[in-house]
Amino acid sequence: MAEDGFDVVVIGAGAIGLAIAARLATGSRSTLILERDSGPARGITSRNSEVVHAGIYYPEDSLKASSCVDGRERLYAWCVERRVDHRRIGKLIVASREEELATLEDLEARGRANGVSRLELVDRAYVRHLEPQVEALAALESPDTGIVDGHGLCLSLLAEAEAHGAILALDRELVGLEPCAAGWRLEVLAQGEVERIEAAVVVDAAGLDADRVAALAGLDLDALAWRQHPCKGDYFVLGPGTAVAPTRLIYPVPQQAGLGIHATLDLGGRLRFGPDAEYVDEVDFGVDPQKASRFREAVARYLPELSDAEFVPDYAGIRPKLAGPGEAFRDFVVQECSDFGAPGFVACVGIESPGLTAALSIADRVSQTLA
Predict the structure, then answer these.
(1) Cβ-Cβ contacts under 8 Å for 18 (sequence gap 6 or more)
(2) Which domains, from first to last, does the chain contain?
């Protein structure tokens, strides 16, 4: 692969990178996808809750809001057309205390401002009608929230990209990046040897590594405030013998550090709880079993039958947040970097939740930026 040239090289074969590659390859651009792992979608894409978000939580006019609402409907349509397993099962955001009721009203107003049309505030009796095991004073019902087979989605995106000539190169880590006459020269470590590739455009969709890749392109992370802060989220499941079976997703009102420990279902009906939010210095996907009592206490507020249940560690994910501990909301960065001295470099930095939902919308934004 030495000295090969491409119109576009996409760094990262997670949901964002594959969606971008599929979109750009269909525009007749020769496209190479570089992935340091031995398979696609094995990074943070493989460690999320696979929820299709409606677009309720994010500030109006933010990219998170617009790309979530637009991406959600694109995602559902994509899944229908390509037979990717998914279900629009709905969600309840529940208030357990009087002081949380105003938050529900704020969330409804924010969601409607973002273009989420199907939202309804419901009372305690209606909550019990929908979910007899859930205890809440009131709830915000979101029928358009759903779940998706994240890995199946990524394979369908890869198939679309490859059908239009894109190439996926695995076990290749980007170690160098510098401007050249063609645009960019990439140095890629593969089986202990350095390969050199040239591309007119480089798209940074490297997930947890996105800020490192941006730094390789010569961008000043601190001046741009693009340094990512890894934030870990653990998940727990119930031990054997506990019978709780909600039919939709159950979320508490949002907490300061995130959306709170919520109950999610996968496409097989498996119930899990999480994530929490803990900023970390190193990537470690182990789950601390000592957190079980904290999870149980949080969940029992809206599922009281679980106040004595056994909570068992399941898995963990890590979000590449741009907002550090205690900092205010930070939006997605999807930015072509000519203004920062790196023409032809597109940075996708801080792509955390709702990144999976927003992937197709983000891909379209990148395509429009390059056009």
Answers:
(1) 33, 40, 41, 154, 157, 158, 161, 359
(2) 4-48+151-227+329-370 (3.50.50.60), 91-143+229-321 (3.30.9.10)
pLDDT band at 241 (very low <50, low <70, confident <90, very high): confident
Q: What global pTM score does this model have? A: 0.96
Which own/partner pairs from 78-82 qualify as long-range (CB within 8 Å, at least 24 positions apart)? 78/153, 78/156, 78/360, 79/148, 79/153, 82/156, 82/160
SS3 14: coil
pLDDT reported for residue 3:
46
Q: What tokens were used for 284?
A: 């470690």
Q: Single out the residue of 366, 357, 17, 48 nearest to residue 213, CA to CA.
A: 17
pLDDT tens digits, 274-324: 999 999 999 899 999 999 999 999 999 999 999 999 999 999 999 999 999
Alpha-carbon distance of 149 to 153, in angstroms, equals 6
Token pair, residue 362, equals 């983000």
- The region, left, alpha or beta by phi > 0 then psi within -120 to 50, assigned to residue 125 is alpha
**Hey, which residues does 316 pair with through a beta bridge?**
234
pLDDT of residue 259: 75
CB 187 within 8 A of CB 176: yes
Phi/psi of residue 243, nearest 5 degrees = -110, 95
Contact between residue 210 and residue 320 where contact means Cβ atoms under 8 Å apart? yes
Strands 31-34, 4-11: pairing kind: parallel
